Amino acid sequence: MVTNSPAARHRILPSDQDASGRRLGAEEIAAVTAALRSGVLTSTKGTFVRRLESGFAQMLGVKHAYACASGTAAIHCALAALDPEPGDEIVTSPITDMGALAPILYQGAIPVFADVDPLTCNITAATIAERIGPRTKAIIVTHLFGNPCDLHEIVSLAKKHGVALIEDCAQAFLASYDGSFVGTIGRIGCFSLQQGKHITTGEGGIVVTNDDALARRIYLFINKAWGYGEPHPDHYFLAPNYRMSELCGSVGAAQLAKLPTAVARRRMLAELLDAKLRGIEGLMPPVVAGRAVHSYWKYAVRLTEPLDVDAVFDVAKLLRDRGIICAPRYIQKPAFMCDVFQDRKTFGTSGYPFTLARPQALDYRLEAYPGVRDGLERLLVVPWNDCYDEADVEYIADSLIDAVWQVQERLAS
After folding, report:
1. Is the peptide bond before 306 cis (omega within 30 degrees of 0)?
2. What is the pLDDT of residue 151?
3. What is the pLDDT of residue 9?
4. Rounded to the nearest 5 degrees, what angle is found at the Cα of 185, between the Cα atoms of 184 and 187?
5. Among the residues of 287-384, which ranges form H helices?
6. DSSP-assigned letters across all residues of 328-342
7. What is the pLDDT of residues 23-45, one digit of tens each?
8. Among 182, 174, 188, 116, which Cα is nearest to 152's?
């Protein structure tokens, strides 16, 4: 149990929001300096973004990897490569960042939300099957917190219905399922290099695929659909400029070499915390599918009985008092409860593309998603970092156990 000393209550943990929890050093400084000295800061003429792309493709064992401006851009590139018709449906998770959903609307498609497994907060083959309809174009699975979805049956389901599977791996660098890295199992994988991810370029994304035709569409979409290097280039279709700069690419290329060690350390530290929390009444460590290997972007613990559903806020406050900035229930509300979906606030007052949707696709009622409700109400997301040491993990474990005990005693009194 944690002592009452100020030092014990206020240990300062490394944070991925500043240098204390980011492995940015001499390698990145040298790479950025080289990019600046070259005078070439656009990826259409530089070399650093290409190094990041080729290195990431080699690390994952895929044919194609393209860097872009953000994780949101990565999802947008994946969807644009599939070229949905206006009103086509994309089945996806309601527990995700808006950056994974806005691209669906920008492509004129309809987000159709599947319920989740309350223990993992990931969508499943069973919940996806309930939402597939005649206009389903693709499924996007989100490997939440770095914990892979149970992909075996999802892959089979996508093949059965002839729809594409996109993997949102923004939080899941080097997580794996059945011995394959996530992002390489579906037709397209999308990654984020935002500030708080396993490695970072501040903002940035990467899209991977083994499909040559999709790869060409992805590359073109990043580049305003201009056919760089082709005999008679043109702007072949509507597309933005989603390029990554050479400055970000230089940082990413240097960061990439540190990724395997960073993920391995996150796993090792998570195993230590698992061991300390296992068997503690009121606490459940992360549940991982039998074929999956977690990469621990965050450490998501569940509060169980005898704690009630509101105890998550009490525990979170006690942890915050000790400097552990955790997120009770992870997000304020499921994505479908946001104004953009509830009020169809998109392009002016048009309501487009919702105006093209089947009524059955627009079921955005909380009561229709019991797994989402049950999954979020007992979820406590603890910050995680490969810059922690074992004393940091012990501090988190002791603080968490002590907070749960305090809340239990309060409820019993």
Report:
1. yes
2. 97
3. 59
4. 80
5. 311-321, 339-342, 370-377
6. ETSSSS-GGGSHHHH
7. 999 999 999 999 999 999 999 99
8. 182
- Determine the 3-state secondary structure of 164 from DSSP: strand
d(CA 341, CA 338): 6
Q: How many CB atoms lie within 10 A of CB 253?
A: 26
Nearest-angstrom CA–CA distance, 305 and 3: 25
Residue 82 binned pLDDT confidence (cut-offs 50, 70, 90): very high
Rounded CA-CA distance 51/68 in Å is 13
- Rounded CA-CA distance 94/122 in Å is 9
Q: Is 353 exposed, middle or buried (0-12, 13-18, 19+ CB in 10 A)?
A: buried
Show the domains of the chain with their CATH numbers.
26-258 (3.40.640.10)
Q: Are 252 and 199 in contact (CB under 8 A)?
A: yes
CA dihedral 98, 101, 105, 111 (to 10 degrees): -130
Report the side by side order of strands in the sheet with 64-68.
64-68, 205-209, 188-192, 164-168, 136-142, 89-92, 110-113
Residue 5 pLDDT greater than 50, yes or no: no
Q: Which residues are CB-contacts of 62 (< 8 A; sequence separation ≥ 6)?
A: 183, 184, 189, 208, 209, 210
Q: What is the pLDDT of residues 314-338, one digit of tens each?
A: 999 999 999 999 999 999 899 999 9
Report the C-alpha gap between 142 and 172 in whole angstroms: 9
In angstroms, the CA 34 to CA 306 distance is: 58
